[in-house]
Amino acid sequence: MSKKIFVLLILLMSLSLIGIIFVQAYYINGSVKNEKERFKFNVNKVLNYVSNTIEKREYSEYVYKLQDLISKGEKVDTTAIRNLYIIKEDLDSKETTIYRNGTLEENYKFNSSLFDIGLDTISVKRILSNRETKVYQNSGSSLDLDLSTNDKLLLLDKMSSTDEIVFEDVYKDLTSRLPIHKRVTKEEIQKLLSEKLKEDGINIDFEFAIYSNGLATRIRSDNFENYDESAFSVFMFYNESNQSTYKLLVNFPDDKRFILSSIMGMILLSVIFTSIIILAYGSALYQLVKQRKISEIKTDFINNMTHEFKTPIATINLALDAIKNPKVIDDKEKVVRYLAMIKEENKRMHAQVENVLRISKLEKNELNISKDRLDLHDLVEDAITHVGLIVEDRQGYIKTFFDAPKSTVLANDTHFTNVIVNILDNAIKYSPEAPKIEVYTENVGNNILLKIKDHGSGMSKAAAKRVFEKFYREHTGNIHNVKGHGLGLAYVKRIVEDHQGHVSVESEKDKGSTFIIKLPIIS
Predict the structure, then answer these.
(1) Does the predicted model carry a pTM greater than 0.70?
(2) Which value, to the nearest 10 degrees, does the dihedral of the CA atoms of residues 375, 377, 381, 382 take?
């Protein structure tokens, strides 16, 4: 896959994921707004219901009191009669129909102490209705009706009538003089609000209060906070001018939680599925990047292996060509020398192949590693003998400082020797000058630390973090001045971990490296 296609795929996937998240957020936000509007609508409906119910209750109480007084025989102070005549002529039937709707107005005066207000008397107007319908045959002459100055004459095709008792002159004037706590109680408001809110599915705590001209009254719940413009409100007790100074306010401390709870299921599902998509996308992206890196590392590995094999193969071919030479084939000493060279190069290629196979078996858990009680100092000495000639040839040295009094470990002789050899070999390869290596041991608790320190080229911090990864080698461009294929330290890490140990490295560029192996000791 080319780099451009790879970047394009990542860009498209990222844009798709961001689009999904934005769509989810948009719909969730829309749902929250809809729930807020629905909540607001229901609360306002409840408040209007409570206000109307209280006003009707108060009105009914006054009507019943006044009706009761009238029924007990209170005398009428003044009366007035008004008649409304409606005349309808039908030309087809030659009939004239007269409708009369008469009203009798009776005025009463009562002692105001009966209604607990600060006035001497109360004037009440009682209106009664009386209806009559007459039909006359048209005779060509006009009808002679005796109409008083209070009567009206209308020519209509239809009419409507009412028959009711009203107290239009006194009710609103009476109640406007009363203090609010005598008109309604907080228990009544609490009960009405609770019942109606539960009917509409709003089963949460609320606080309420009645304010008059922006000031708090005695009618309020215990925990109602200061006047807040964001509270739900409705006007109450309108006067004769259809205006009101009283306002019922309701606060819901947990309204946001209630609104969210109604769509919490949808929000949780959205979050869960979006999280799954993000995790899947992140995992896919990680695998893509990882596979791309692995592909690059494998390409680098193949190039290194090719370079590693080219030299031995060329050396073997030259040695064989030399042996074929008639002048050389008779020279036993040269033949033995060339054969030894062929064997050495073949051994070198075999070791590289073994390293690859060893790592493969480790990953498949097919490598059988048996462990015995061994002295770690002996393993170090054995490993030093494997690289001693190379160090001497480069005029370097390996010094040991065995300061650990307890050095018995449970280990595999062959594999752990290879671990130490690999680290020593790296120290030699990455020492541009004569290799100078120190090996230290010390006891820390129930563990033994093995430190292998060199004074070579070292490595960057980024390389130190990845040096134990398979196939990893620090980039040096196209320069192959240090042979290798990034498997030796990966093998070291797997073997040490199989021995319940831990391996790490401390390094600084151009100042050398120190590899530290920690193993549990046995008594």
Answers:
(1) no
(2) 20
Taking the C-alpha atoms of residue 482 and residue 458, their distance in angstroms, rounded to an integer, is 13
Instruction: Give the distance, in angstroms, between the CA of residue 92 and the centroid of all CA atoms in the same chain.
Output: 82
In this prediction, residue 505 carries a pLDDT of: 94
Report the Cα 250 to chain-centroid distance in Å: 31
For 474, the 3-state DSSP assignment is: coil
Chain centroid offset of residue 283 CA: 19
* 509 closest CA partner among 461, 438, 451: 461
Q: What is the mean pLDDT of the chain?
A: 76
Bridge partners for 507 per DSSP? 513
233-281 pLDDT, tens per residue?
Answer: 888 887 767 777 888 888 888 777 777 777 777 788 888 888 888 888 8
Residue appearing with tokens 């006359």: 136
Q: Residue 510: exposed, middle, or buried by beta-carbon count in 10 A (0-12, 13-18, 19+)? A: exposed
Question: What confidence category does residue 473 fall into, taking pLDDT thresholds of 50, 70 and 90?
Answer: low
What's the rounded Cα separation, in Å, for the pair 483 and 305?
9
What sections of 127-185 are H helices per DSSP? 171-176
Could you please report the per-residue DSSP string of 307-366? HHHHHHHHHHHHHHHHHHSHHHHT-HHHHHHHHHHHHHHHHHHHHHHHHHHHHHHHHTT-
